[in-house]
Automatic annotation (TrEMBL):
Its EC number(s): 3.6.3.-
Keywords of the record: ATP-binding, Cell membrane, Hydrolase, Membrane, Nucleotide-binding, Transport
Protein name: Putative phospholipid import ATP-binding protein MlaF
Entry keyword annotation includes ATP-binding: yes
């Protein structure tokens, strides 16, 4: 029997109140213990899905399950307890600039636990070790490279031993080497700490290299979800365009416009539509 998914969205409909549906019936699963990558066009609602999983947003319709619990039925205490089981890396790298690396990672432990300082010290150093930065504990965020800052943010996100980690575009703005390091780290932490990870990313190389499960979001719905192999083998032209990053296909490069001739041809010079 397949283990139940760690997170599941069933028929999720969501809009920000301006009459437009960002999500129009999303059904997707996040398999337990795996790395799930959420792909989709810019503005397609990927971050919105992470916020729904984190309980920061509620669906207008449909349900979001976290470890078998319908998030919509949780009261404030239930939501709080659920969030304690999650690490979130929104705006990856947003460290407190006036605190050392050590204090940044210690922050959630000091805020949310009653642990003694010697114990906090051990946990912080363990988490920094896991991201390869135990030696940088006394640095200030301003002294770190972008890639290092993100690793510190990652150490902070796992400080409270979450079961689920949500990453929103963890590679944006990083050079290729740092991207590779971050990608390997996400995979490694997932496996060694027994996490479940959800990553929103535009990085196709990363996606196919480390994902166990890929979800492709198109027009507010899940166009396809499955293993990297299943996604690669899909004969859906939309999926193929997406994974080959082709500029034109079912999703057009050009925003709908009048013909080129109409804008630039002889008639345009005479003042347009004659
Ligand atoms: N707080 C908000 N209020 C109103 N509209 C919003 C809000 N947040 C996002 N949106 C809109 O909802 C849509 C989906 O946004 P979302 O950030 O979820 O997309 P995304 O797929 O993560 O995009 P990207 O890949 O560009 O980060 C966009 O059109 C966005 O403008």
């Amino acid at each position: 029997m397949k283990p139940s998914p760690f997170v599941e969205l069933q028929g999720v409909v969501f809009g920000y109140g301006d009459g437009r549906r960002v999500l129009d019936g999303v059904d997707m699963v996040v398999p337990r213990g795996g790395v799930t990558v959420l792909l989709g066009a810019s503005g397609g609602g990927k971050t919105t899905i992470l916020r729904l999983m984190g309980g920061q947003l509620r669906p207008d319709n449909g349900r979001v399950f976290f470890d078998g619990h319908d998030i919509g039925t949780l009261d404030r205490a239930g939501l709080y307890a659920m969030r304690r089981r999650m690490g979130m890396l929104f705006q990856f790298g947003a460290l407190f600039t006036d605190m050392s690396v050590f204090d940044n990672v210690a922050f959630p432990l000091r805020e949310h636990t009653q642990l003694s300082e010697p114990l906090i010290r051990d946990i912080v150093l363990m988490k920094l070790h896991a991201v390869g930065l135990r030696g940088a504990r006394d640095r200030m965020p301003g002294e770190l490279s972008g890639g290092m800052a993100r690793r510190v943010a990652l150490a902070r996100a796992i400080a409270l031993d979450p079961e689920l980690v949500l990453y929103d575009e963890p590679f944006s703005g990083l050079d290729p080497i740092s991207r590779g390091t971050a990608a390997r780290l996400i995979r490694q932490l997932n496996d060694t700490l027994g996490l479940t990870s959800v990553v929103v990313s535009h990085e196709l190389d990363f996606t196919f290299a480390v994902a166990d499960h890929i979800v492709v979001l198109v027009d507010g719905k899940v166009a396809l979800q499955g293993t990297p192999d299943e996604v690669r083998r899909s004969d859906d032209p939309l999926i193929q365009q997406y994974i080959q990053a082709a500029p034109d296909g079912p999703v057009r490069f050009h925003y709908p416009a009048v013909s080129v001739e109409e804008d630039f041809g002889p008639r345009a010079a005479q003042g347009g539509r004659a």
